[in-house]
Amino acid sequence: MEFKFERKINYYETDRMGIVHHSNYIRFMEEARCKMLDEFDFPYSSFEEQGVMIPVLGVNCNFKHHVTFNDTIIIKPFVKEFNGVRLTMGYTITNKETGDIVLTGETMHCFTDMNLKPIRLQKKIPEYYEKYNMLMDKE
Length: 139
Prior knowledge:
Blueprint: E1 5-8, H1 24-39, H2 44-49, E2 56-63, E3 72-82, E4 86-95, E5 101-110, H3 121-124, H4 126-135
């Protein structure tokens, strides 16, 4: 299942050179990841309501092209790896107007209880475990 999140670049997200500062891409990936969970009816807030946290363990970004103020980007998040305890999300960000790939990246996560002790999602919230399996990129 493919999900796309469209977003316009704000002026405050650019640097002195007039391009989006690299640190903003981590925010963009998080926005897309949260919107994807909303779209597939298991919002991040519902994890917390059930005592589950999803901390970020790592981030990798490969910058290909830049974008500037008023450009629109399309972010495609996808489940790259998932085993019920750990999750790797992949991302492709493209410039809507040019079609250029702006960034490819990934974020690594784990599922924990509220004390940050790792848990198995299949035991804690089995229906969410099934949804992540359904979303996993099978390529």
